[in-house]
Amino acid sequence: MALSIIDLRGREERLAPRHMALDLDVVVRVRDVVSRVRAEGDAALLDLTLRYDGADLTATGLTVSSEEVEQAMRIVSPELSSAIDSMIERLRALHERQVPVEWWTERDGLRSGELVRPLARVGCYVPGGRAAYPSTVVMTVVPGRVAGVEEVVVCTPPMPDGSLPPAVLVAAARAGADLVVKAGGAQAVAALAYGTETVPAVDKIVGPGNVYVTAAKREVAGDVGIDSLAGPSELVIVAGDNIEPELIAADLVAQAEHDPLASTDLVTTSRELVDEVGRVLKKDTVRAARRDVVERSIEHARAVLVEDTERAADVVNDLAPEHLQVMLNDPRAFIALVRNAGAIFLGPFSAVPFGAYGAGANHVLPRVGTAGFAAGRGASDFVTVSAVVELDGGAAARLGPEIATMARAEGLDGHARAVELRTGGGSGA
Predict the structure, then answer these.
(1) Do 126 and 260 share a structural domain?
(2) Which of 218, 237, 252, 384 is most buried, by CB atoms within 10 Å?
(3) Is 334 part of any domain?
């Protein structure tokens, strides 16, 4: 399967990151769903779950019972349970390093610092549909727990029989979710944002989802915190001509099986490597377990030819990919040139799937070019940071005149007077 080739050798052309445009019909439909759930609560949530997921939950209810969790624990194999536990421990170790710490400083009567407080309640959205994602449960719940969030609610779409994948339930229980709700799509986002009789309103919604979830998060943003507006998954591979084409083709297939719209780019100085990867990719695509998804995704795959590693870094920084895989002789030297990437994987042994399952990274990452200004999920996303200022009389008297001068320069006489009343420079009448 030939890759689409963009030859930038000797050219100043820059590549633009992929951007996500929400279809107007999707926006209108989502707005109606959000309005219904906000007005009707559980009744709307039950009706929409039946309509879109085929699950009638009127008799069993929207939440997962302890019996369902216990049954899932019995069904899931010891090997998978152990893998989930190990991933949780890796994520805890990672996110414990990220929690912001309070700090204080005091000088000449001015004391200042920052308070760090966990959010009270967070909603974690976990996709369903094509596959079960216990890993996304772990990636969203664990950093919240590490940050000290008081209550973590998971929403994920049920299967037509009203059940959830056992691995998802085991992951939710082991990671520390307080409540698991059988709801997906825009209706789940609305329920988390505004609350229903069953689903508590949260302070922030995190986690990836399809275009309807993304549109719903945009709709409720401002009424509730959101992490990001996620688009299709992305991978850029920067490879030297000595890398085995089989490795690159396997990594492109691994990325492509996410979604028909998943984005893959190979950046290299070698046209021969591009041709060799294309030949291997054709065979790998035919035998892929999710062949239909992979074939549709690989249709959008590109090979970008550059003259040197500096130009390769320019391409990476322009695309700002979710995942960057560096397979060069000296990958650590290359990342000194990189500004924009969600997660970076160095060397031929560091396949992106290692990070997808908690080996050193959280897999909820910025997409569609937003790695140019945003970061992946971390414990800091689950806290608030408040600045604290305390002055004694001496500090107020010392700083007051210059603060009042600045305020009046900006036309804010009220600001100046509020300061001067504390410094003896203004009238109290």
Answers:
(1) no
(2) 252
(3) yes
CB atoms within 10 A of CB 34: 23
Q: Which of 322, 410, 415, 420 is catalytic?
A: 322
237 close to 325: Cβ distance less than 8 angstroms: yes
In a domain, 1, yes or no: no
Cα separation, 138 vs 88, in Å, equals 6
In a domain, 393, yes or no: no
What's the whole-model pTM score? Answer: 0.90
Phi, psi of 367 (to 5 degrees): -125, 180
The yes-or-no answer on residue 322 being catalytic is: yes
Give the span between the Cα atoms of 214 and 137, in whole angstroms.
Answer: 18
**pLDDT, tens digit, for every residue of 354-388?**
998 888 888 888 887 787 878 888 899 999 999 99
- Give 80-122 pLDDT, tens digit per residue: 999 999 999 999 999 999 999 999 999 999 999 999 999 999 9
Q: Residues 281-290: contacts with CB within 8 Å, 24+ apart?
A: 281/1, 281/3, 281/249, 281/252, 281/253, 282/1, 284/249, 284/250, 284/253, 285/1, 285/253, 285/256, 288/253, 288/256, 288/257, 289/257, 290/257
* Domain co-membership, 263 together with 205: no
Query: Is residue 242 domain-shared with residue 146, that is, in the same domain?
Result: no
Q: Which two tokens stand for residue 270?
A: 């070698």
The sign of the CA dihedral 235, 239, 243, 249 is positive
DSSP 400-423: HHHHHHHHHHTT-HHHHHHHHTTT
Of 373, 394, 418, which residue constitutes the final position of a domain? 373
> Is a pLDDT exceeding 80 seen at residue 283?
yes
Average pLDDT, the chain: 93
Candidates 95, 258, 323, 363; catalytic one: 323
Q: Are residues 33 and 150 in the same domain?
A: yes
Which residue, of 337, 352, 373, is where some domain finishes?
A: 373
CATH number of the domain bearing residue 338: 3.40.50.1980
Bridge-based pairing of strands 234-239 and 323-327 is: parallel
pLDDT of residue 429: 44
* Number of Cβ within a 10 Å radius of residue 65: 11
pLDDT at 130: 61
The widest CA-to-CA distance across the chain, in whole angstroms, is 86
Number of domains in the chain: 2
What digits encode the pLDDT tens for the residues 165-193?
999 999 999 999 999 999 999 999 999 99
Which structural domain, as residue segments, surrounds residue 336? 231-373
